[in-house]
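> call design_seq(struct)
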């Protein structure tokens, strides 16, 4: 049966204060439909059978009540989540870590095939409260005796139909039969084939059934595109897109209310007329902001889903999903803010490699393939700026009173003997300011921003000879790079390729931009481009490599120098994806 809940905010749910604080920290304002229907039932101790697709927000629907039920002091797993894939296991583990940020002595461990057993065994021996894993690897640990589920309180089957499709259903059955009888079970599946129904009937006790129907009607006049983030920071990508796209007004959607103010400030600093809109803004101020947007007093609104609910402004030509929504319905609602009154609309989505599942869920739910887009190149930016500058000249010639300026040019030419063409070029440079007008000027500006090379250093780049003292490496990173400490090392079995792969995938950074890697006993250092955005650094703190969270920190903030490496941990462990200079 379908369950409809009147819950409209997380504050109404009986979640412990540390979980409410974590939700407030990240700025989540109201639960999705499945969260509102499922969380109260799970908090009451009921089993749940949920029919919901990826992208409906079901991870929080089971993670929050599972965390609320944890007993302090136990080193044995109390929550087990089974997922069909490694990627989903990592994603779910990261969600648990985010929601448990204010819980003391909390540990979550993702376990899946293809990863080193040793790191997983060490973590299990140290004690974890939540295990998230694929059925095969979970079953292996149970048979080895390394995964003790005698204290299990909550068992979650996530995307059960996918586990059936991938041939894991026998493993799932075996795991269910080995768990304590007195445990709560939540089963989620996009479809309910007979095999999944049989599992539910056998292993769930009088479950609350929740079925969420996703509304996916999309205006055909809206063009949908996606940029798969790689190599360029999101803010730089956003400003490139805003500069090249012909837009009247745009809404940029982010997930949290904190991000609205941060991004609006950054865009304003780059010369865009911008305002923020989130659930903390009083209704009167919200109405005033919307009226100013309608009147053309600013052009870009940075907003959360809640703040933009019901927003109807005809001049919005573009919607940019700066943060991909976890909820498919939220995506449909967001892009519906454009293409109003029969006009053409554009919707652009930013998606990371780790978010491909959400992207596929959106495409599946909407029945549409979202067109891939490439970022505008430096040359395209320059062409656009040139065309825009010519247009400004044409408009000024047609509308402005120029007699006083003609007199000024004539006087200057007579006084200094400078050709009129040079005077016009100088005035153009004054009008353009410090924003480069050509691709060559753009490149020259970048080169000038780079620090002057150290004359004592050899030239950097592929094939450059190492500069190395006997028994010692130069601690300084290359020009334009910054050194970070990550909490994974030899004792965890990590290899340079593991670090490169994790950072390239999770930070949306091309491997060629990852510099020198040094591996020590219990940690490593890695050189990354200077100016890493805070949101990427925050994310890298929670990324898992060889059974460890990276906990990335700038080396100058990490406290102390790296410890001496193990014997033999030299050159073979120094590896990066591209330009790097051994020291």
């Amino acid at each position: 049966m379908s369950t409809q809940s009147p819950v409209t905010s997380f504050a109404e749910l009986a979640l412990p204060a540390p979980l409410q604080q974590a939700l407030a920290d990240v700025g989540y304002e109201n639960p999705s439909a499945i969260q509102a229907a499922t969380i109260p039932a799970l908090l009451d101790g009921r089993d749940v059978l949920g029919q919901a697709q990826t992208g409906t927000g079901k991870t929080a629907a089971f993670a929050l009540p599972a965390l609320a039920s944890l007993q302090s002091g136990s080193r044995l797993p109390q929550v087990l989540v089974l997922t069909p894939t490694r990627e989903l296991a990592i994603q779910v583990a990261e969600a648990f870590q985010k929601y448990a940020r204010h819980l003391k002595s909390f540990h979550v461990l993702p376990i899946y095939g293809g990863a080193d057993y040793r790191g997983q065994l060490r973590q299990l021996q140290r004690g974890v409260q939540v295990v998230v894993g694929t059925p095969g690897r979970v079953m292996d640990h149970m048979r080895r005796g390394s995964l003790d589920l005698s204290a299990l309180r909550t068992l979650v089957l996530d995307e059960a139909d996918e586990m059936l499709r991938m041939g894991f259903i026998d493993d799932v059955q075996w795991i269910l039969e080995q768990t304590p009888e007195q445990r709560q079970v939540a089963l989620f599946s996009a479809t309910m084939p007979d095999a999944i129904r049989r599992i539910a009937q056998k292993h769930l006790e009088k479950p609350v059934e929740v079925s969420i129907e996703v509304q996916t009607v999309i205006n055909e006049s809206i063009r949908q595109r996606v940029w798969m983030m790689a190599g360029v920071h999101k803010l730089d990508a956003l400003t490139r897109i805003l500069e090249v796209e012909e837009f009247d007004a745009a809404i940029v959607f982010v997930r949290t209310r904190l991000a609205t103010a941060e991004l609006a400030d950054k865009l304003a600093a780059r010369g865009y007329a911008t305002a923020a809109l989130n659930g903390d803004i009083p209704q009167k101020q919200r109405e005033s902001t919307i009226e100013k947007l309608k009147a053309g007093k600013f052009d870009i609104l940075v907003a959360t889903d809640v703040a933009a609910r019901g927003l109807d402004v005809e001049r919005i030509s573009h919607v940019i999903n700066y943060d991909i929504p976890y909820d498919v319905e939220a995506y449909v609602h967001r892009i519906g803010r454009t293409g109003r009154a029969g006009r053409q609309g554009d919707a652009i989505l930013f998606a990371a490699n780790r978010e491909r599942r959400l992207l596929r869920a959106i495409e599946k739910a909407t029945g549409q393939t979202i067109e891939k887009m490439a970022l505008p190149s430096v040359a395209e930016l320059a062409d656009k700026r040139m065309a825009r500058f010519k247009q400004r000249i044409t408009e000024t010639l047609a509308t402005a009173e120029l007699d006083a300026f003609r007199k000024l040019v004539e006087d200057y030419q007579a006084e200094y003997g400078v050709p009129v063409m040079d005077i016009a070029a100088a005035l153009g440079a004054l009008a353009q300011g410090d924003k480069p007008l050509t691709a060559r000027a753009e490149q020259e500006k970048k080169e000038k921003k780079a620090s002057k090379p150290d004359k004592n250093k050899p030239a950097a780049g592929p094939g450059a000879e190492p500069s190395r003292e006997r028994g010692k490496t130069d601690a300084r990173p290359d020009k334009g790079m910054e050194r970070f400490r990550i909490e994974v090392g030899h004792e965890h079995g990590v290899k340079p390729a593991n670090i490169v792969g994790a950072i390239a995938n999770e930070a949306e950074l091309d491997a060629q931009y990852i510099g020198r890697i040094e591996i020590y006993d219990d940690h490593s250092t890695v050189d990354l481009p200077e100016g890493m955005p805070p949101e990427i650094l925050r994310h890298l703190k929670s990324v898992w490599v060889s059974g460890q969270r990276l906990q990335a920190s700038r080396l100058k903030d990490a406290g102390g120098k790296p410890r001496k490496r193990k014997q033999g941990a030299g050159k073979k462990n120094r590896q990066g994806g591209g330009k790097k200079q051994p020291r």
